[in-house]
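Translate sequence into C-alpha cells.
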Amino acid sequence: MKELDLDRVSQFIDENFVDFYHSLINALEELTLNQLLEIKNPYLFKVNCVFSVSELLENLLDAYLSSSEEKLFGDFLENLAIFIAGQTCGGHKSTAQGVDLEFIHNDIHYVVSIKSGPNWGNSSQVKKLVQDLKSAVIRVQQSRTANAVRPVLGICYGKTRTNVNYRLPGCWKVVGQNFWYLISENESLYTDIIEPIGYRARQHNEAFDSERGRVVNRFTREFIDRFCDPLGGIDWPRLVAFNSGNYDLDEIMTLCNPT
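Result follows.
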C-alpha cells in the first residue's frame, strides 16, 4: 500500500465535516413538535418526575439528535474510509448493493460493507448483508480481477476481535483499529483522525448550539400552548392522548365478531 498522507486526510475532514453539520442543522430545522412528541415514551418521563417543559423537551431532543447524529456521522466515517482506501490502494466506492468499498491489495479483491458501530442492525439486516456480500463475491469472481476475493464487514469503532468466516465462508468482521489498519496499514490511523475531527467539531458547535436553542424556545412556546394547564403544569393525560390515543378497537371487534 502507498503511505497515507495525513495532511490530505485532514483536508478531506475539513471539507466534508461541514456537510455533516449542515445535515444535522437541517434535521433540526425540519423537525416539528409533533414528530418529537411521537418518538418517546411519555409514561417514562412521568415516572422520572419530569415537571419542567424545557427539561422534557431537552430530553426528547437529546434522544432525537442521538439517532440522527449516529446515522449522519456514520455516513461521514464511511466516506472517510473510502477516501483513505483510495489514497492507499486505489479503493473506490462500490456500485454493488450492500457493499460500500472495493479495493485490491496483494492480489486479493476486497468487497467491504462499512458500518459506523457494532450495534448496526437486526437479524434481518444481517441476513440481507450476508446475501449482498455473497452476490458481490460471485460478481468479482466472474470478473477475475484478482486471484482471491474477500468479503469484509468493516466497523469503524469498537473492540471486538477479528472474526474470520463471519456468517459467510472467508468473510472477515474487522472492527475499530483493525478496520482502519486494513485500509491503510497504519496502526495509529484510528487515533490520528480524532484530532482533525475534534477541531472541526469545535468550529461548528456554536452554530449548531444556536439552532438547537431556537428549536427548544420555539417548541417550548408551542408545548405550553397545547399541553399545559392554566397554571403552567404539564397536562399529562392530554400529552399521553396525543402520543398514544388511537381507539378504534370497538369498530374492528364489531367487524370481526358480527352479532
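Note: The two ends are 76 Å apart (CA to CA).
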